[in-house]
Structure formats: structure tokens, C-alpha cells
Write a structure and sequence with these properties.
10 strands, 2 domains, two-stranded antiparallel sheet, 293 residues
Length: 293
């Protein structure tokens, strides 16, 4: 089978079962590039024949994709904030909207370091997943002291693997989380005050999870998705528990689901936090809530 034949076959199957024609074309290209180990091979090497091993890898990957397994898990990586992160079923797949949390921290650190250039600032990433947020912060601000927590030991190991991949493991602290208690694992980490706290908590209700695409509901970790009956349980816990972690003049930022800002703002107000205007994503959706004491 030539590369062009494989591309055409995969594009047709994917457009019949999963994607638009354009999405199918791009996805088939990405799979082929990964199998062959070069870029845009359907154009540059269209008439080359796939080896037997490449054909087997391509057909296996295509079968997994048609069965619903996410492309990021098949490829084993996902790009986030300009970095490549190891990605598998142990952690939620990094998404572009979560980059807003990194941007918020970098903006805050830039200003705070300008005012206090000799102070080491402490940042906590609650529910770190792949570690993409925490590691992106460390890569851009090596002087920051960053703590990453996760309740799942296997997920925390994935974050460590990514930290090793980016040569920052020695500049971070990984802390085993505690179910339904976001603050207590960090209280024993020396000085308990954090200048910035960020989190992308589970925020989807079980009824909404049931309506998600199969790639998400059947493959991504349920614990990283399920936010309780109304999707807001984690915000209630964070608002109630994390006051004790925040340093004077500190700030806490959490990613939100679509349409959740007003409900989450009410939760934080009831727990005696003040809330800034929401940070909106590239589609104008209220995507990040920022709370202060």
C-alpha cells in the first residue's frame, strides 16, 4: 500500500464514521506522519510504499481511532503552551482553554517579581493531571516554587514523567492529593502560604458526561471529569478549604465549564472571597474565575 492509498482509505473511513471530510483528511495525515516519522508524507512521499511494520502500526492506530480512542492517546503526546506532553489514559488530555491558567500565572508573576524581585513566589496547581499547567509555569519562571497535587497516584506519576521529559522535576514538588480535600496535602509543605493557586477541577455533571463524545466519556479518566450532581462540588470544596493556603495579596484561579461563572461566583462569595471579572477564552466564553481574599 502506498502512502497516498493509505491516506485516502483512512480519510474515507474517518469521514464516514467520525469526522467532517476536512477533519478526516487532517487526522489521516497526522496518523501517517506519526507512523512514518516525517511531516506531510502524503504530499512529499505519496507514492512510497509503507513497510509491513508501518502498515500494521497504521492499521492498528486507525482501528483504535475508529473505536473511539482519542488521537492524543494513540499518538501518546499533546502540545500545550508550546510544549509537548506525554499523554495517556492516566490523565485528562490537555486542552487549549486551560492555557489561560498558565497565562494568568505568568502575568501575575511578571508583575509581582517586578515589585519584589528578590522574593521566591510559591504556586500550587491543584489536580495537576499531566502536569501541563505546573510544568509550563516552571519552564517560563524557573525561580517560582511550584507544587503539583493529584489524588490519583498514577496520574501524579504521569506528571512526574512529563517533568522529567522537560528537565524540571528537580525544580518542582509533587504532592499526593486527598479525595475531597484540596488543601490538607499542602499544609505540611513548609510554609503553607501560596501566592497563586490554580486548578482545572472536574466540573461536568454525570448527566452531561453521558452526552459527551465517546472519545471523552469512554476513555478520559472519569475522576477528572465528574464534578458531582451539578458539576460544582469541587468549586464548593476549593472555596471552603483553600482560604488557609492563600498568602496575603494572593489569588486563586479555576477553570470553568461553559455557563458556570455566575454559579461559581456565588459559591465563592458565600465563602467570603471577592471575585474578579471572568477571563474569557478565544470564543468569548467565561472560562476562568479569579478569586481573592
Amino acid at each position: 500500500m502506498t502512502i497516498m492509498q493509505a491516506h485516502n482509505q483512512a480519510s474515507q473511513l474517518l469521514s464516514d464514521k467520525l469526522y467532517s471530510r476536512e477533519q478526516a483528511h487532517v487526522t489521516a495525515r497526522i496518523l501517517l506522519d506519526a507512523v512514518v516519522g516525517a511531516s506531510h508524507v502524503h504530499l512529499t512521499r505519496a507514492q512510497d510504499a509503507l513497510t509491513a511494520a508501518q502498515t500494521e502500526r497504521f492499521e492498528t492506530a486507525l482501528s483504535e481511532l475508529l473505536g473511539g480512542r482519542p488521537l492524543a492517546y494513540i499518538l501518546g503526546t499533546r502540545e500545550f503552551f508550546g510544549l509537548e506532553f506525554r499523554c495517556d489514559e492516566r490523565g485528562l488530555i490537555p486542552r487549549p482553554e486551560t492555557e489561560l491558567l498558565v497565562e494568568f500565572v505568568l502575568e501575575q508573576l511578571t508583575e509581582r517579581i517586578r515589585l519584589e524581585p528578590h522574593r521566591q513566589f510559591r504556586v500550587a496547581d491543584l489536580g495537576t493531571g499531566t502536569g501541563c499547567v505546573a510544568i509550563s509555569i516552571v519552564k517560563n519562571f524557573p525561580s517560582a516554587q511550584v507544587f503539583a497535587t493529584d489524588v490519583s497516584p498514577t496520574t501524579l506519576e504521569l506528571a512526574r514523567e512529563n517533568a522529567r521529559l522537560h528537565a524540571v522535576e528537580g525544580r518542582m514538588e509533587f504532592v499526593a492529593g486527598k479525595q475531597d480535600n484540596w488543601a490538607s496535602p499542602l499544609l505540611g509543605q513548609g510554609e503553607a502560604a501560596f501566592d497563586l493557586i490554580v486548578s482545572n477541577p472536574p466540573y461536568i455533571s454525570p448527566s452531561d458526561i453521558a452526552e459527551l463524545p465517546v472519545q471523552i466519556k469512554n476513555f478520559e479518566p472519569r475522576g477528572a471529569l465528574d464534578g458531582g450532581p451539578d458539576g460544582l462540588d469541587c468549586y464548593r470544596q476549593i472555596a471552603r478549604q483553600c482560604r488557609v493556603l492563600l498568602a496575603p495579596k494572593g489569588a486563586l484561579a479555576c477553570e470553568l465549564g461553559i455557563g458556570q461563572f455566575e454559579s461559581v461566583r456565588h459559591i465563592f462569595h458565600r465563602a467570603d472571597w471577592s471575585v474578579d471579572a471572568p477571563i474569557r477564552d478565544f470564543q468569548g466564553i467565561e472560562r476562568v474565575i479569579v478569586a481573592k481574599l
